[in-house]
Each structure stands twice: as C-alpha cells, then as structure tokens.
Amino acid sequence: MATLEIDRDAAAKPSTSRSVDLKLEVVVIPVSDVDRAKAFYARLGWRLDADFASGDDWRVIQFTPPGSACSVIFGKNVTAAAPGSARGMYLIVSDLEAARNDLLARGIAVSEPFHGAGDVHAGPDEPYLFGSVRVSGADPKRGSYSSFASFSDPDGNGWLFQEVTTRLPGRIAADDTTFASQTDLAAALRRASVAHGEHEKLTGGHDENWADWYADYIVREQAGQELPT
Known about the structure:
The chain is of the alpha/beta class and 229 residues long. The protein has three domains: 24-83, 2,3-Dihydroxybiphenyl 1,2-Dioxygenase, domain 1 (Roll); 87-165, no CATH class; 176-223, no CATH class. It has helices at residues 2-12, 34-43, 96-105, 182-203, 210-223, and strands at residues 26-28, 47-54, 58-64, 71-76, 89-93, 114-116, 134-136, 148-152, 158-163. The protein has a four-stranded mixed beta sheet with strand order 1-4-3-2, covered by helices on one side. Strand 8 and strand 9 form a beta hairpin. The chain is elongated, with a radius of gyration of 21 Å. One of its GO terms (molecular function) is lyase activity. This is Putative enzyme related to lactoylglutathione lyase. Keywords: Lyase. It comes from Bradyrhizobium huanghuaihaiense.
C-alpha cells in the first residue's frame, strides 16, 4: 500500500528534470479496405505523407490533418485491431461551423453541432464516450471545449470536432503563444476584433493602441488567462 501511495504522489507531480520530450505524432486506425480509406482521407483534404508497401503482405499509409502535429496511419497488416474500432478521436478546431462547412463542401457526411448536458456529450451511436446525453446545437454560451460535431470514415472509425478557442490555464505559457495555421490566427484576430469593439464601447472612443490590445487579448486567450475588457 505504501508503495502504491508513493507512486500516485509521484505521478501527480509534473516532472522538473525531464530531458527528453514525449511527442505524440502517430495514431494507428484499423481499416478493412486500404484504397477506400486512402480515398476518403484524401477527400478530407488531409496531407498524404507516405504510401509504402512491401510485396503483397504489408502496406502503410500516413495522412496528416491540416495544422496538426499528429498523423494517422493505416494499411495492411499494420494493426490487429478490428476495422472501425477506433472511436472518439478528437480534431480540435477554432471554428466549428467553418470545419463542418468544409466537410460538407467535400461531400462528407457530418453531424449537426451538439453540446453535452453537463460533462456528458456522447450520443447513442457513440458508446465509447461517457454517458449518452447529447443536446442539439452548439453550446449556447459558445464556451471553449463545449461544442462538437462528429463524422466517421467508411469503416466506422469515429472522429469528433471539438471547438476550442481559449485553452485551459497551464496548457500554453503566455510567452509561448503559437498558431498551427493561418486559419487559426485569422480566427483569433476576428475574436479579438469583436472583443475590442466591445472594449471601445466601454471606453467611449477610438483606441489608438488597438494593436497592443489585440496582442494582449490573443496571448491571454491562448494561455487561458483572464481576458481584457
């Protein structure tokens, strides 16, 4: 018992001496028809990184979603998992409506936006998520981490869009603000523009230091800090 308690305490504390980063860069998804899966993920607009084969017994294909540091691989004799058994894979987006519209324009079926009742956001077709309560429509308050949409590949591997605009505290340091793509940066600027308009209403005039205000807003938003008013 004492050993287990010590291990739990150690696991709860962040490492201060780690010298090697651990970067999740590849997720394996099981498919039944490799060429069909390749055509689907290409249709999503994801980047094709590799298509390697060794005779007729082994083949691996890698795709990377736009702006992602993590890729997916699938193929022949890549995994023993049942095709379609990969569920609850999250794609973080800064604009849920834009992400849905992009898939619809590509002819991909995607669910309507939904949010959860409390901390629960699964649907009856998604038992791999906790609970089974789903509320139609995006989160009324449009809270970060609260709005979702789902879609599946031809085998039934399940994906979720999750809209994240403000990170929880501690996820990103204030001096380490970065954007994975031009799209994410543009979305952040639009949110800052709307907030700055409200700021000028409160101050009753034009803010000549709007650039500094924008920068402060975006950095705080990304770091999960209190936003300026």
